[in-house]
Amino acid sequence: MNIFNKVTLKSLQKSKVRTSVTIIGIALSAAMICAVTTSVASFQNFLLQNYIYSDGSWHGSTVADSGTLKKISDSERVSAAVSGQYLGYAKAEGCENPDKPYLYLVGASDGFSEMMPVHITGGRYPQNQSEILLPNHLKSNGGVSYSLGQQINLAVGDRISGDEMLYQQNPFLWQRGENGRPSDIPAETLKVRETRTFTVVGFYGRPSFEARSAPGYTAITLPDPTPPTSRYEVYFQTKVPNDVYSFMESLSLSGDYNTDVLMFMGISKYSAFYSVLYGLAAIVIVLIMFGSVSLIYNAFSISVSERTKQFGLLSSIGATKRQLRKSVLFEAFAVSLIGIPLGILVGIAGIGVTLLLIGDRFMSIGSSLVIPMRICVSPLSVIAAAVTALITVLISAWIPSKRAMKITAVEAIRQSKDIKAGTTGIKTSKLTYRLFGLPGALASKHFKRSRRKYRATIVSLFMSVVLFVSASAFTGYLTQSVQGSFATVEYDLSYFTGATEEQIPENTFQLLRSAKAVTGGCYVGAYYVDGVLSRDELTTSLPDVIAGNLTGKNPEMQFPVYFMDDASFRALLKKNNLSEEGYFNASAPQGVAYDTYQGFDTGEGRVISARLFQNQPSQIRRIEYKQIEGYYYSYRDVDEAGKPIAIYQNSDTEEEMKIPIDEAQIEQTPLKIGAVIERNPIFYKEGSGLNVIYPYSMRQAVMGTEENGVACCYYTSSDHKLSYNDAKALLEEKEMDSLQLTDAGAQAESDRNIIMIINVFAYGFIVLISLIAAANVFNTISTNIALRRREFAMLKSVGMTRGGFNRMMNYECVLYGSRALLYGLPVSFGITWLIYRSVRQGFEIGFSLPWAAIGISVASVFLVVFATMMYAMRKIKKDNPIDALKNENL
Prior knowledge:
This protein is of the alpha+beta class. Helices cover about 45% and strands about 20% of the residues. It is flat. It starts with a helix and ends with a helix. The model is unreliable at about 175-185 (pLDDT under 50).
């Protein structure tokens, strides 16, 4: 080790606090970078494992004969190959699905269940040719039920159409005219070859290798020694996954590639996924590097300033600028040697704990995802994080070293570069003198003489304010956008009951209201009606996507009229601070309106929000068109001459009939609106347009004998899964249709999970950036104070008291904090505005400042500054003035 490196290490050892804080800053920066790279690797592995679970781990597949199967299996380029031997088809007796009337028998080779997505849900895997594994959807989709241990006799044969044999890729061919499905292709027949007896030993989930259009339910057994035909569905893995494309070309094989699995292994002919994934990661890493360089730079800047006299002495005895620059870079390597590995470990541990806590929620991104996201530490992600962090530190050290090399040896020894006094006296504010006395005036003069040292501290605080407020604003707007895009209802369960007969909603509602964990609910009758609005009452600046459908002086629109059970309607009135007067009067019923629209405007290319009415509408007129036997009214239009016409459609053939509208034949019924409510009912989805709501007891008074309504029950629950399962059991016990029961809470939970994931990672980023900022502010201020020991000793020697020192330091704290906020807050507001404008390109949202983040940043700036000052001054106060004045190596 040369003398320069030894001197550098000695300097680091002498400034233990500064060195420790610098290492902490580097560790935090490395932790954030490692967290990003590890998150990308973990997300990629998460998707890979889920697609392997759903699609299998094979790379390529083909249909082959026994000879080609042997070539594939024996190839040195193939690591593993399995096959499904074609055994034939058998009628699935009692099958209720007319498009899927068969069992498709497959003889699976050794290792088939490991490479392919065969997930046993009951029983076990077959062990000989007389045992069979059946798919679950044979019962759920086909209505054919078997039990474990049951023996079944199957007449096995081949599907024939003319002279052609049909397989799974060929949908079932109906007889001409049969089931209303004519066909020009000859209908298929099953040519039976043999009768086989199987014992049902297990059941498995619906396999992805069975197409939805396939005519047979895939039943798995073991292969026959003497198969009926030499046909195999072969699935294989190549030793080098990327080799699968050239391998299939070399054997002239036609087939499929496991595209999703290959893509998430990093092998794909299409790079869009990785362009997005790596692009986002690169943007985040660049932001981290920018923040880290801006902040870690200050630590090295202070270090270089502290060592300026040392550099001058070394220069005076012959040290070159190159040697001195290497000394600074060696210091960067030395602290990085500790900080980067520590940061990588912290980053990995942090992401590991985060994914352990919220990894299950990533499954809500897609309905097919069943494996939770867990940490995946790949060597490439660690190396990328380490190299990026090292580059960040080297850039942070190189900038101040370049400046230091420009100082001459004499200037460095005299240390006259940073502190300069002009020819005229430095003036201070009278207000400063009155508030802080002579100590404040001295601090102000010192600040003006050595602006560069103070500038480093203010830049650190400035960056911390800007990053914290901007990141908070970005997170807030992103969360609002996601919440708006995933506008969800407030209920957890819904049950569609059909016609709105008096007895149906109440009885069904009470039945499901007794389900476990159900906490409340309501039932609603719904009618979709055509109505006439008054142009004078509409908002004057409606978006084009709405205004385009509302033309004329009295525009028409279709909207729902709801009838909510009386108890829930009363609760809705109370929720909106309305009295019940006038709402339960059958002779003149009035309802409430909830008026919001939210949707994607193709003209503007963004999601917009709007209200139809600028004030409370006086009334809305419901219109009813004349009835035509065999037809139903569809919609209103205009003919070529611009005259209004009604479009009717045939109830059987959907053939359209256009009839000129005679306004005298249109019945108009006023729908009186008592109030436009601000707080929505539980069944309402935000942004779905105009809704008019009445008490259920007023249904006949409003709609008369109208019979085209439907009814639905809505429930809230403390555990939507438990309530759903119990409600389903109650319906099945009463032999009622359970398919109309919907677990809306599952979708809402999925949306909440996505928002929570965004918040966790966003606020984690904010916290780490803030810690880096705090560490570097602490480093900067404490080192500046340490470098002023001789100055403080001189002030002590001329009689400055402890109170004087406190006033001087308090003034400096106010100076640091106020200057940082003076620059930081306006810049933060500007960036917040830019973020708002960017988000508003895709989603209509109001501008708002993150006041909580602003308050936290203001308080934190002064807290960090005062805490650092107190820490630094505690050490300075213990100094002996005489020793401090003698010591030049402070």
